[in-house]
Each structure stands twice: as structure tokens, then as C-alpha cells.
Specification:
Distance between the termini: 43 Å
Largest sheet: 5 strands, parallel
Helix content: 40-55%
Number of helices: 8
Order of helices and strands: EHEHEHEHEHEEEEHEHHEE
Strand order of the largest sheet: 2-1-3-4-5
Radius of gyration: 18 Å
Number of strands: 12
């Protein structure tokens, strides 16, 4: 698989390249934020390791553009450790967040985990073709539609919707949601889970503004409630 490393510190980039190539990945490196989207479009990497503090363009803006155009997994790598940056990064569609200083072995492990989750989501037979009252999920194409309208979802939002849609009406606990979204046992705050649910709920509401399709059951979890689709 191809990994795009976006990092303006040459020594760090070289270390990441060495470890990733040793793990079997093909690696390209770019040190300027202005060049990233051209490479993403031309090379179509399987994952982007994205530093936030870059010359030319900020990493958050780049992440926003990647999410608007592709479903390529993004791992943010940064020295910004404040919670607001962490939540903002996840809301923009980042799949993971690694703080500097870091172990290169940890980065490789996180890359493997994110790629494994992405592959599992695409291959998941429970989600493939799942249809419930106007909702259609096509896992192989990584597409979801509600009442025929394509939903612009991040990879995490897609996995969340596929999980809830696998059994409409069932209440999924926070732990079950986390198990469905993350399999690397990271520490994720309740606010992070709520952020993903809020973003997905908003995108569903763009199609059905008069319905609250994802219900929060206080102290328990979440369930998907779908009535009949649009005629």
C-alpha cells in the first residue's frame, strides 16, 4: 500500500519513511502544504500521514480538502496536544491523531490499525447492500445514500452508520460503538464519540430535516430509527 508522508522536518520524514518501508509500504514524502492535494489526486495514496504545522497551507485545511474529495484515511501527526485541536481534527474527518514526540514503531502500528479498519469496513458483509427504509449502504464502493441522495461521509462516519444500520432500532452502547470504529484500544473521550454522532446526525438531517434519525438513549447509547423513505 502507498503512504503519503506530509512532514516539513526532513529528519522526522526520513525516519518515518525508513520504518514504513521496512514494514512493506511504498512511501512518498512532501514537505509543503501547497503540494499535497495534487499528489493525492495523482498518486491516490492508501493513507496520508499529515502534519498540521506546514509551510504553505495548514494541515487542518488540507484535511478538510481531502475529506471533501476522497475517503482516503488520514492520520494527523502534530505537536498540538490541546483537546480542541484533537476534536477539531476528528470532526474534519481525521481517522487518528498522533502527538509528537512519538515512537516510529507506534506510527507504523497506527497506520496498520487504520488501514485494517478501512479494509474491514469496505469488506463487511453485514453492511454491504444493507437497506432500511430509504437507506442504502454499499460497502465495496464505500457509498451511502439516503432517499437516493449520496451522503458525504468521513470513513469514521461511514463505519458508524454501517454499524447502526446493521440492526435498525437496536441500541448500541458506547463501548459497542467504539469496538465498531476503533480496534486499537486507544483512549477516546465521550466527547469524541459524541462529535462523530453529531456530525453524522447533521448530514442525515440535510436529507431528512424533519426527522431525528439517530436517537441518543441517555446513559445507554445510540440507535438508528428510520421510517419509510421518500416517495
Amino acid at each position: 500500500m502507498n503512504i503519503l508522508v506530509v512532514e516539513d522536518e526532513p529528519k522526522l520524514a526520513e525516519v518515518l519513511r525508513t520504518y514504513l518501508e521496512a514494514a512493506g509500504y511504498a512511501v512518498r514524502w512532501v514537505d509543503n502544504g501547497l503540494q499535497v492535494m495534487d499528489i493525492v489526486r495523482e498518486w491516490a495514496p492508501d493513507l496520508v500521514l499529515l502534519d498540521l504545522m506546514l509551510p504553505g497551507r495548514d494541515g487542518l485545511d488540507i484535511c478538510r480538502d481531502i475529506r471533501a474529495q476522497t475517503t482516503i484515511p488520514v492520520i494527523m501527526v502534530t505537536a498540538r496536544t490541546e483537546e480542541i485541536d484533537r476534536l477539531l481534527g476528528l470532526e474534519l474527518g481525521a481517522d487518528d491523531y498522533i502527538c509528537k514526540p512519538y515512537s516510529p514503531r507506534e506510527v507504523v502500528a497506527r497506520v496498520r490499525a487504520v488501514l485494517r479498519r478501512a479494509e474491514a469496513a469496505v469488506a463487511a458483509p453485514a453492511a454491504d447492500g444493507a437497506s432500511a427504509s430509504g437507506l442504502m449502504i454499499q460497502a465495496e464502493a464505500w457509498q451511502a445514500r439516503l432517499d437516493g441522495v449520496a451522503l458525504d461521509l468521513t470513513p469514521v462516519e461511514f463505519r458508524l452508520l454501517a454499524l447502526l444500520a446493521s440492526q435498525p432500532g437496536r441500541i448500541f452502547s458506547r463501548d459497542q460503538v467504539l469496538d465498531g470504529l476503533y480496534d486499537d484500544h486507544r483512549v477516546v473521550t465521550d466527547r469524541t464519540v459524541d462529535s462523530h454522532v453529531k456530525n453524522l446526525r447533521r448530514k442525515l438531517a440535510d436529507v431528512r430535516p424533519d426527522e431525528d434519525l439517530i436517537r441518543s438513549v441517555y446513559g445507554v447509547g445510540y440507535r438508528l430509527e428510520l421510517s419509510g423513505g421518500a416517495s
